[in-house]
Design goal:
By secondary structure, the chain is α/β, with parallel strands linked by helices. The chain has helices at residues 3-8, 25-30, 51-62, 88-98, 103-109, 121-128, 144-155, 160-163, 183-188, 215-228, 244-251, 280-290, 303-312; strands at 11-16, 37-41, 45-49, 82-85, 115-118, 135-137, 164-165, 168-169, 172-177, 201-211, 233-238, 272-277, 296-297. It folds into two domains: 3-44 and 213-312, 3-Layer(aba) Sandwich (Rossmann fold), CATH 3.40.50; 48-210, 3-Layer(aba) Sandwich (Rossmann fold). The protein is built from 13 helices and 13 strands. The protein has a six-stranded mixed sheet, with helices on both faces. A five-stranded parallel sheet has the order 2-1-11-12-13. Helix 2 links the parallel strand 1 and strand 2.
Length: 316
């Protein structure tokens, strides 16, 4: 059997995201040789790094802004006690600064005791791929609220030689996109906490996001190609509220007058599409904005969580 014939027998999985670099765990998991699925990427969002913030981040790194008091030149501006990552794009912005630095210098600028807090396994893998000696922590938390609780406990237990400089508790640097939730800074800086337990957070918008102009065309093209191949079912995995409307319109599932979900005709002979969401935020957006209940929503926001939800689904 040819490779193309083998792929034709597999269930298409349309991943509405940009492929992560250097590897993508969704591609690795769904694309295994023994898998019954055939993954492909359809980027919904276009990400643009803010060059002014990337340049600022570079200056902080090169001027020992993340080095602890023990290994930092006295004249260097110690700014932050750690970093927070909740998106792959933020990891990529950080990587663009870190990767050009010689490994030996990198280990001095970003020492092994520097905590890098990550909200889930995807961000953690991206950070680890840089080969830093830093601690990568929090990946098992899975969401911002749980990560914030983890950081309150962990960061407040670190020695003051790491977290205090010139009598001031060092804040954490949070690299974010322009669209983000504020649960982490609110939790870490909550006025209900004892002042000694509060953790300052410096949010820097390092990338901007917009819906790709080509998404509607690319998505419609993929649907058409799968129909021509005689595919009977496909899964569409949605990772964020952006692009949900375009997806439903392309599928013909929106009422033109109300903008709400319009159930498709029961065509047992044609291609049937099933929707999976990465978690409750996107699921709730689909329900609230369009009145559409996705077929499954992952219990854990990971490739394994999505696959488990899909595999547990009972087809009608």
């Amino acid at each position: 059997m040819s490779e193309q014939s083998a792929n034709d027998d597999k269930i298409p999985v349309l991943l509405l995201k940009t492929r992560s670099n250097p590897t993508d765990h969704y591609e690795d998991l769904f694309g295994q040789a023994e898998s019954i699925y055939q993954p492909s990427f359809l980027p919904v969002l276009e990400h643009r790094f803010r060059e002014d913030v990337v340049s600022w981040l570079q200056s902080i790194v090169l001027n020992y802004g993340f080095a602890s008091c023990d290994n930092k030149p006295d004249s260097a501006p110690s700014r932050f006690g750690g970093l927070i990552f909740t998106s792959q794009r933020a990891v990529e912005a950080f990587a663009s600064v870190v990767e050009p630095i010689e490994p030996q210098t990198r280990d001095t600028l970003l020492p092994s005791n520097l905590p890098l807090y990550c909200v889930g396994p995807a961000t953690a893998r991206g950070i680890r791929s840089l080969g830093l000696r830093c601690q990568v922590l929090g990946e098992e938390t899975g969401n911002g609220e749980a990560l914030a609780a983890f950081m309150l406990d962990h960061y407040n237990r670190l020695p003051e030689t790491q977290t205090v400089f010139k009598g001031r508790k060092l804040p954490l640097l949070f690299l974010v996109g322009e669209q983000r939730r504020d649960i982490i800074p609110k939790t870490l800086q909550s006025p209900v906490l004892d002042e000694s337990k509060q953790i300052g957070v410096d949010e820097r918008v390092v990338y901007e996001t917009g819906e790709m102009e080509s998404f509607h065309f690319d998505f419609s093209k993929s649907i058409k190609q799968n129909k021509l191949r005689g595919v009977v079912k496909q899964w569409i995995i949605v990772f964020s509220p952006q692009g949900c409307g375009a997806m439903l319109r392309c599928l013909g599932w929106l009422d033109g007058s109300t903008g709400r979900y319009l159930p498709p005709a029961k065509d047992r002979q044609g291609l049937r599409s099933y929707i999976a969401t990465i978690g409750p935020t996107t699921r709730n957006y689909l329900v609230g904005e369009f009145g559409f209940e996705p077929h499954v929503s992952a219990d854990k926001p990971s490739a394994e969580g999505v696959m488990a939800a899909i595999q547990a689904y009972q087809y009608c």
